From TrEMBL:
InterPro entries: AcylCo_DH-like_C, AcylCo_DH/oxidase_C, AcylCoA_DH/ox_N, AcylCoA_DH/ox_N_sf, AcylCoA_DH/oxidase_NM_dom_sf. This is Acyl-CoA/acyl-ACP dehydrogenase. It comes from Zestomonas insulae. Keywords: FAD, Flavoprotein, Oxidoreductase. Residues 191-338 form the Acyl-CoA dehydrogenase/oxidase C-terminal domain.
Amino acid sequence: MNFNFTDDQLQFQASVRSFFTNEVTPERIRELWQLSSGRCDTLWGELVDLGLPALCVPEGQGGLGLNALDFVLIAQEAGYAGLTEPLLDTALVGVPLLAALDDAHAALRDEWLSAVAEGRARLAIGAPDAALVADAHVADLLLLGHGDEVHALRRDAVQLTRNESVDPSRQLFRVDWTPSAATCVASGAQGRALWAATFERAALGTAAQLLGLAKRMVDLAVDYTFERKQFGKPVGSFQAVKHLMANVAVQIEFAKGPLYHAAYAVAHDLPQAPVLVSHAKLACAEAALLAAKNAIQAHGAMGYTWEVDLHLFMKRAWALDKAWGDRGLHKTRIREALFGGVITPGAGQTF
């Protein structure tokens, strides 16, 4: 049995990586920080031209009909680049949630899926009890939780209050809104199932981004330590520095297996998906946090400064470590699975 990604998946990943390398640069990220929205319609349009928001949209609504396993490599590249746009919330989290709505809401479902596929809409997700919603200010449709209900609201139907994040690229908002029968698109057992599945996809996408961030921080540290010289030699030639980076590289390699296994389980709706997602989130978060710690040390005092690019990715890793379930929640889910308990769904534990 071949457990590798297909040639098509790897080639698509390479093309996305090439695009991000050229278009999502640290300089562009810093420029976006100066904008009130922190987002760029031009960049979103370029993502649409690549077909990325349409990846998981069903073919009947103009998409490619792919799944989480196809998307996980793209999510890694988004993390590596430090992509600011809400690609994952729209394509990996929001689209499958919309696509799972029943035929009673077919008109709304098909309208918004087509809009996403055509690049006319972005989505924001606020799970039940979530204190904050990412990118609510640029979303055309917000999918919000109220108890076991799923509600769909346009942006002009809610009130937003900005909340600062440790990562300037994260745009977080408190959303004030009023649930109503007109906005409710799922409830009861169906609503609980939809939010549980949404949590798994969101946690998986977050884990993939963390893995990409870990790799980027290692690359930044390696580049810096070859440029920086002491005693006439690059500091990267010293054994202590080599060990710092080697330890992270090992963590990254060990995290890939759990991440890809979890992606397969989510894509095929396997019953063990929740525990595999938690394993992936923990492994990728540990790799990213170790990368941040060791990369700061490899940079020396420069690692703490605003001028170097390291903090762009380090702060994102710190923020995503808590997104869609912190380490405590995911450790609890693994413990419950190992010792025969009922796995906590985790819906609402988004920040």
